[in-house]
């Protein structure tokens, strides 16, 4: 078979027990929204609040260590779970199992009171949520035709503005009742997993491939990076995510220590306002970018321009460290990141080396999502403490996104 033929997944087929493509996309939207609600609501609000309540003097350093170490677990578990999902030919057991395990991890996190145990709990949640994420991510290349990947990726990409907004709004309401907040987010992702597994049956199970020596398995696991287009898509995604999370991961502390908020406004309240602004802009650009990239059959220009814009808007809070400046920054950053993630996801599904190993290769790509999050907390913490504030952090994040914009240029297999 040619590489082009391998990149073509089996065309989706529906039976009386399977959802239509429209129904499938709705289920994927719910599944991704719940996942992003956990990542944003817990990771951006409850976790920083929890750490600040334990050790306010060292909150920046502790958050950096907890975020960095937990992202190692995310990076490892996502591709491993993807490869195991490919091997078993099943997605639903991994979706449901990952969600229920995350519920248990969040329940544990809500009952600990030391920085060490908070770190352990968040590592457990990151690991189990990435089992869930790996299986959910693989459904698009499994079932969606190539011609509709941009639209599907756009709809799935709405999970970030919808789930992110919901997560931050709920998190800001639960900042004084952390135990209930953690349980609420666990219930949300478990409910979404139940919907997905009940209404979206697994495709007919493939016979598992014969077991290969461990060295061969490792080489096969990383083989996608030997493909030129996939490698450049990986690099661009990694740089963009690193630039984004270097800043967004510290937004609660930025609002507390750097931005001049209106009198009487708490940082968590400010986040509850800024996040819907960013996410609404993200939702618009996600849909518009995904649909137009399908209609015009052009992907690279959307990805490159949105990454460049994400880099440039990091200068806004540097020039204007005010509430108005943060509102402008949030709107423009949402526009840029939403378009990038929607169309870049379509690019990746179009340059996958093999349809048979879609979950494994998407898991490798998800290293570009989780891996930079290992580095981001350490980088952000070092920049803030060594260079004396958050202005250098915005500049570093902007530079990383601008470099990421250049990585799309060498990709040849997508216009």
List the helices and strands and how they pair.
Layout: H1 3-6, H2 21-54, H3 59-88, H4 92-109, H5 115-137, H6 139-143, H7 149-157, H8 159-173, H9 178-199, H10 214-221, H11 228-248, H12 251-257, H13 267-296, H14 300-312, H15 316-319, H16 323-350, H17 358-365, H18 367-387, H19 391-406
Care to describe what's here?
- It is a single chain.
- With 415 residues, the chain is an all-alpha fold.
- The protein has a single domain, classed as Growth Hormone, Chain: A.
- The N terminus is likely disordered.
CATH architecture: Up-down Bundle
The dominant shape is: globular
How many discrete structural domains?
1
User: Low-confidence segments, ≥5 residues, pLDDT <50?
Assistant: 1-17
Largest sheet, strands/sense/barrel? none
If you consult CATH, what is the topology? Growth Hormone, Chain: A
Structural class: mainly alpha
| Count of individual helical segments | 19
- Tell me the β content: under 5%
**What is the name of the CATH superfamily?**
MFS general substrate transporter like domains
CATH C-level class is: Mainly Alpha
Indicate the mean pLDDT: 83
Distance between the termini: 23 Å
Number of strand elements? 0
Question: What is the radius of gyration computed over CA atoms, rounded to a whole number of angstroms?
Answer: 20 Å
How helix-rich are the residues, as a percent range? over 70%
Spell the H/E element sequence. Answer: HHHHHHHHHHHHHHHHHHH
């Amino acid at each position: 078979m040619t590489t082009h033929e391998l990149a073509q997944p089996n065309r989706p087929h529906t039976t009386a027990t399977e959802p239509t493509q429209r129904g499938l996309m709705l289920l994927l939207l719910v599944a991704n929204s719940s996942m992003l609600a956990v990542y944003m609501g817990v990771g951006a609000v409850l976790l920083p609040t929890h750490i600040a309540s334990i050790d306010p003097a060292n909150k920046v350093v502790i958050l950096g260590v907890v975020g960095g170490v937990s992202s190692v677990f995310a990076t490892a578990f996502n591709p491993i779970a993807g490869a195991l999902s490919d091997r078993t030919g099943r997605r639903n057991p991994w979706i449901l199992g990952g969600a229920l395990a995350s519920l248990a991890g969040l329940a544990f996190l809500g009952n600990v009171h030391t920085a060490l145990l908070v770190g352990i709990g968040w590592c457990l949640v990151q690991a189990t949520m990435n089992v869930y994420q790996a299986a959910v991510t693989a459904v698009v290349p499994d079932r969606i035709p190539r011609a509709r990947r941009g639209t599907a990726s756009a709809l799935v990409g709405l999970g970030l503005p919808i789930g992110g907004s919901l997560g931050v709004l709920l998190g800001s309401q639960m900042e004084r009742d952390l135990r209930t907040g953690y349980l609420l987010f666990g219930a949300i992702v478990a409910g979404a997993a139940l919907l997905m597994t009940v209404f979206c049956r697994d495709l007919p199970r493939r016979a598992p491939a014969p077991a290969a020596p461990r060295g061969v398995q490792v080489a096969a696991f990383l083989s996608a990076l030997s493909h030129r287009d996939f490698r450049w898509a990986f690099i661009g995604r990694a740089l963009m995510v690193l630039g984004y999370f270097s800043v967004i991961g510290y937004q609660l502390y930025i609002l507390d220590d750097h931005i001049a908020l209106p009198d009487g406004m708490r940082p968590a309240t400010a986040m509850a306002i800024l996040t819907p602004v960013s996410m609404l802009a993200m939702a618009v650009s996600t849909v518009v970018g995904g649909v137009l990239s399908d209609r015009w059959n052009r992907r690279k220009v959307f990805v490159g321009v949105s990454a460049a814009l994400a880099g440039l808007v990091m200068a806004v809070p540097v020039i204007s460290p005010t509430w108005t400046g943060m509102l402008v920054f949030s709107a423009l950053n949402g526009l840029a990141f939403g378009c990038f993630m929607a169309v870049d996801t379509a690019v990746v599904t179009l340059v996958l080396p093999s349809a048979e190993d879609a979950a494994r290769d998407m898991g490798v790509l998800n290293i570009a999502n989780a891996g930079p999050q290992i580095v981001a907390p350490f980088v952000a913490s070092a920049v803030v403490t060594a260079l004396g504030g958050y202005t250098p952090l915005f500049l570093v994040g902007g530079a990383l996104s601008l470099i990421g914009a250049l990585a799309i240029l060498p990709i040849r297999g997508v216009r």
